[in-house]
Design goal:
The chain is of the alpha+beta class. It folds into two domains: 84 residues; 167 residues, Immunoglobulin-like (Sandwich), CATH 2.60.40. Helix content is 30%, strand content 20%. The chain has five helices and ten strands, in the order H-H-H-E-E-E-E-E-E-E-E-E-E-H-H. The strands form two sheets. Strands 3-2-1-5-8 form a five-stranded mixed sheet. A hairpin with a 2-residue loop joins strand 1 and strand 2. Helix 2 packs antiparallel against helix 3. The N and C termini lie far apart (64 Å). The protein binds copper (II) ion. The site of copper (II) ion has 7 residues, from loops.
C-alpha cells in the first residue's frame, strides 16, 4: 500500500499505524487521483475553449451552443464515480467506525479529557471500574476531580500527556473536555474527534505497529493551542503491563488525599446546586460514594 500511496505521502500524511487506517488511505488516495484527473481534464477543456472560441474566429455569439452529447456523458460518469465513492466506500466505512465498536472486554478503555492546553488520560486501573468524577473536586493535583471516597476510583490511573496502549488490541476512548472545544487527533491512527464540553464522544482504533505517536489538538482552542500535544505510545504487551503496573503503584500513593485536606477558604467541596454533571461522570450514582458525599466539609455549609 505505502509504495502506491504517492499522493498521500506527497501531502504529508504520516505512515498508518492502525488496523482500519489502510481503508481510509485507499479512499484518500483514490479520491486524490480522481480529483487530479478532473483538475487536469477541466483545465485542458478550459484552455481548449479559450482558443477554439476566441473572438477573432467567432465575432458573433452562437446562441444554440453545444450540439453533441459528450459533456452530458462525461458529467454523468463523474457523478457516478462520486456516488460509488460515497455510497460504496465512504459511508460503509464510516458506519463501521461508529456502529461496530469492539467488545469492551477485549479492549483498553480510556477516558480522554482535553483542557487548555493539554490532554489527560484516565484509565480504570486493576479493578476495571472508573472512579466517580466530580467537577468540584478538581484541583491542580487532581485534574479530573476523581472522588477519593469512591472505592472504584482508588486504583484509577491518571496520566498527563502520555498514554500507553498495547499493540494489536482495540482501544476505546471516551472523549470530553473541561473548557472549550478541542479535537483529539491521532493522525497515525487515522482518527480524530471533537472534544466537546458536556458531551461524551466515543471513538476507537486498533494500533498495529509499536512506536510513539503524536496526539495533536485539531481545533483552534486558544493561545496555547499550538502546544497542545500529547503522545500515544504503542507498546509490546509485556512493556505495557510493566507501565501499567508502575502507574498503578503510583496511583495507589497519589490518589490518597481526602477532600477534608482542603486549605481554608477553598471553594466548597461537593456538588453545588445546579451544577451540570462533569463530562465522564457515570450515568448512575455510585451507591458506595453516596454517604461520603454528605460528610461535613470545613466550610460547613
Ligand atoms: Cu485544544
Amino acid at each position: 500500500m505505502s509504495s502506491l500511496a504517492l499522493i498521500n505521502e506527497f501531502l504529508g500524511q504520516p505512515p498508518n499505524a492502525s488496523e482500519h487506517g489502510y481503508q481510509i488511505d485507499h479512499i484518500l488516495e483514490f479520491a486524490h487521483w480522481f480529483m487530479g484527473a478532473l483538475f487536469i481534464g477541466w483545465s485542458a477543456f478550459f484552455v481548449f475553449v479559450l482558443i477554439r472560441f476566441r473572438r477573432s474566429r467567432h465575432p458573433k455569439a452562437d446562441h444554440a451552443g453545444v450540439r453533441s452529447g459528450i459533456s452530458t456523458h462525461l458529467e454523468f460518469s463523474v457523478v457516478l464515480i462520486e456516488a460509488v465513492l460515497l455510497i460504496g466506500f465512504a459511508i460503509p466505512l464510516w458506519a463501521k467506525r461508529v456502529n461496530e465498536f469492539p467488545s469492551t472486554q477485549d479492549a483498553i478503555l480510556v477516558h480522554v479529557v482535553g483542557q487548555q492546553f493539554n490532554w489527560t488520560f484516565h484509565m480504570p486501573g486493576p479493578d476495571g471500574q472508573f472512579g466517580r468524577r466530580e467537577i468540584g473536586l478538581v484541583t491542580n493535583s487532581n485534574p479530573l476531580g476523581i472522588d477519593s471516597n469512591d472505592p472504584a476510583g482508588k486504583d484509577d490511573i491518571v496520566v498527563l500527556g502520555e498514554l500507553h496502549v498495547p499493540v494489536n488490541r482495540p482501544v476505546i476512548i471516551e472523549l470530553s473536555s473541561k473548557d472549550v472545544i478541542h479535537n483529539f487527533d491521532l493522525p497515525h491512527m487515522r482518527i480524530a474527534a471533537d472534544a466537546i464540553p458536556g458531551s461524551l464522544i466515543p471513538m476507537w482504533f486498533k494500533p498495529i505497529k509499536t512506536g510513539s505517536y503524536e496526539v495533536v489538538c485539531g481545533q483552534l482552542c486558544g493561545l496555547g493551542h499550538y502546544g497542545m500535544k500529547g503522545m500515544v505510545v504503542v507498546d509490546e504487551p509485556a512493556e505495557y503491563q510493566s507501565w501499567l503496573k508502575e502507574r498503578a503503584e503510583l496511583a495507589g500513593t497519589q490518589n490518597a488525599p481526602p477532600p477534608t485536606q482542603q486549605p481554608p477558604g477553598a471553594p466548597p467541596v461537593g456538588p453545588t446546586p445546579g451544577t451540570v454533571p462533569p463530562p465522564g461522570a457515570p450515568k448512575t450514582e455510585n451507591p458506595a460514594a453516596k454517604p461520603a458525599q454528605s460528610a461535613p466539609t470545613p466550610t460547613g455549609e
